[in-house]
Amino acid sequence: MIRIDWKNLRSFAVVGALAVGTTVALMPTKPISAQSAPQPRGLPDFTDLVEQVGPAVVNIRTVEKVRQSSGPGEEEMQELFRRFFGERFPNMPKPNPRQQAPQPDEERPRGVGSGFILTSDGFVMTNAHVVDGADEVLVTLTDNREFKARIVGADKRTDVAVVKIDATGLPAVKTGDVNKLKVGEWVMAIGSPFGLENTVTAGIVSAKQRDTGDYLPFIQTDVAINPGNSGGPLINLRGEVVGINSQIYSRSGGFQGISFAIPIDEATRVAEQLRVSGRVQRGRIGVQIDQVTRDVAESIGLGKAQGALVRNVESGAPADKAGVEPGDIIVKFDGKTIDKSSDLPRLVGNTKPGTKSTLTVFRRGQSKDLPVTIAEIEPEKPVRKVADKPEPPKPAAASALGLSVNDLTDAQRGELKIKGGVRVSAATDNAARAGLREGDVITQVANAEVNNVKQFEAAVAKADKSKPVSLLFRRGDLAQFAIIRPVAR
Q1: N or C: which end of the chain has fewer CB within 10 A?
Q2: Domains and CATH numbers, the chain
Q3: Model confidence at 117: pLDDT above 90
Q4: Annotated catalytic residue, options 45, 121, 129, 250
């Protein structure tokens, strides 16, 4: 067993951070057998990596032109005074033509970021937020050459941008395989924190597949990243770029030990589309989704809490045409398992519009494959709210659940675009605690479809009273599950 002096280990870490290239080996205090003891390792030396990758990292400065707001000239001021005060100001000075000359726009520095050269002919990758809103982008190389850059394209959803400088024979980076990146692996960043160009920091991969965005599973590291590092590369020990440093978690605005990088495979896919068309095409199927909880999964027979719960299907959207229904749980997309709901928009978004794909849904205890043709993403439509007219309550049904329900009118079924269901006229006891309320429309009880009060009562009577009962209900256009434990009578 290797015994480590933690006090000394901390000092080693400090030395390694202050003196790049210092190698420190942790040696066992007692001799142990070669078969059971791991080989002692030294801290990595980053000097070769800096020499290899450093020339391909650039500093990016952005400039915005501030339009000078020239107030009314003296001639206009005289006219204003005459209109409001008559001729009481006859001796106002005549306008000075020199003072009335239009003022040129003022160029104001907007921000500093980082980037890296993708190709030797001048394509540079950075973050979209680095160049967003800039009137001018200036790229400075490590040899102090400066170029005005043209923004080829920027994608705010993934925070990836590509700019182009007019130069050839440039040093370009090599990209690595993110799938081979391991938690605990050493990585290095080069960038311009606070404008300090070509600053090198290092750390380890803390986690992968962090959900901090709709379309990206981020790489989490403990590499020191600060304002100005944005857009710079995250590099493995083989000198390959594995990510773009993009975000930090901070309560102070500065680095606090947690930073996030965009995986380079995702960034490269976006960059290729930006270079071809200047924009990114993304697929959509037209559903609103939510996470599947463990209680819901167990109650409906899914077993494992996985997939994406469909809360709403947009009318006329690909999912609607494919037969997807509110309450379905999408468990696979083109054979790829949906472990969590955020997996679905990423898989669909990365699919080219027009592609014929397959959705596997879990519905009323069974799995079903539905063919769907992917459409191109567009702004989300606002959720339509349905205003139900109050109805006089009818005799209580299934009082063991704390519910009173009524049949739907034809108008209500047409408004909600559903075949049937029962409308909640009162929710008390456990039903209220489960989140149900007046106006909700229940469409399933314990995986059984219900179209009217008679079917609802039969389904409740058939349900196992010793176990919680799952209800699928609609509230406006949104569908969700409620788990109710029957009230003892």
Answers
A1: C
A2: 6-43 (no CATH), 45-92+105-280 (2.40.10.120), 283-376 (2.30.42.10), 399-484 (2.30.42.10)
A3: yes
A4: 129
